[in-house]
Specification:
By secondary structure, this protein is of the alpha+beta class. It folds into 2 domains: about 5-140, Fructose-1,6-Bisphosphatase, Chain A, domain 1 (2-Layer Sandwich), CATH 3.30.540.10; about 155-255, D-Maltodextrin-Binding Protein, domain 2, CATH 3.40.190.80. It is built from 6 helices and 16 strands. The longest helix has 22 residues, at about 5-25. About 50% of the residues are buried.
């Protein structure tokens, strides 16, 4: 079984290849359509990146499982010791609009735990990396979350998370809400302290958060689902029950303020 550092090197190589393919479609009016059942948009670029990643990664690691937003579900992944968890383009709406804030999210799970992770933003050439035993890095330099408390914190989340119904006694904390289109990138932005937290109160697909969750954890953030439970990956459902990602102080304050 390859060491996590070997898997990380493979993921970095794959993420760079994904970026080159995506940039060939970006701002070139790629074909786009809506998935069934309101699952959001997809483009020919998503599929091209997915096909390239699957070929590269599964050829290098044929005994690993495969879970990707743009592939048919394969239940055999549940029996694999390790599994790739991939979002070929996270932030497809931003990609379609010609915005810069899309990313490639690549992770390896061993059992329920992520052991290697890369989030790559090709337009800005930002690459976040981590292994389960190593530091979280941005372009090779260590990162760390902020030490902010809840009052005045900048929280990456969607508008509905600010509704009183989600908070104990209807008291919405005095944080400032921000948004970025890629959920994987939001976790990384919290990991590096550019924003104080990333928060979602609705279920998140594993491919959106697997890589970012390890990067944030190894940076020193506390990373849980919305109820404060540890995240578990490569599950049959392929989803996690929301997320709270922040420095330990802010994480505790957000968790305490939420309605249970």
């Amino acid at each position: 079984m390859p060491a996590p550092d070997e898997d990380l090197a493979l993921l970095r190589q794959a993420a760079r290849a994904a970026g080159r393919i995506a940039m060939g479609f970006w701002r070139q009016d790629p074909k786009a359509w809506d998935k069934a059942d309101g699952a959001g948009p997809v483009t020919e670029a998503d599929l091209a990146v997915n096909d390239a990643l699957q070929a590269l990664l599964t050829t290098a690691r044929p005994d690993y499982g495969w879970l990707s937003e743009e592939s048919e579900a394969d239940p055999s992944r549940l029996d694999a010791r390790r599994c790739f968890i991939i979002d070929p383009i996270d932030g497809t709406r931003a990609f379609i609009a010609g915005q810069e804030g899309f990313s490639h999210s690549l992770a390896v799970a061993e059992g329920e735990r992520i052991v290697a992770a890369v989030v790559h933003l090709p337009v800005s050439d930002r690459t976040y990396t981590a292994t389960a035993e190593g530091p979280a890095l941005l372009n090779g330099l260590p990162i760390a979350p902020s030490a902010a408390g809840i009052d005045g914190a900048t929280v990456l989340t969607y508008r509905a998370a600010s509704e009183p119904a989600h908070w104990a006694q209807g008291r919405v904390p005095r944080f400032r809400r921000e948004f970025r289109p890629s959920l994987a990138w939001r976790l990384c932005l919290a990991a590096e302290g550019r924003f104080d937290a990333a928060l979602s109160l609705r279920a998140a697909w594993e491919w959106d958060i697997a890589a970012g969750s390890l990067i944030a954890e190894r940076a020193g953030a506390r990373v849980t689902d919305r109820l404060g439970h540890p995240m578990r990956f490569n599950s049959p459902r392929g989803m996690v029950d929301g997320l709270i990602v922040a420095g330990p102080r802010l994480h505790g304050e957000l968790l305490s303020a939420l309605r249970r």
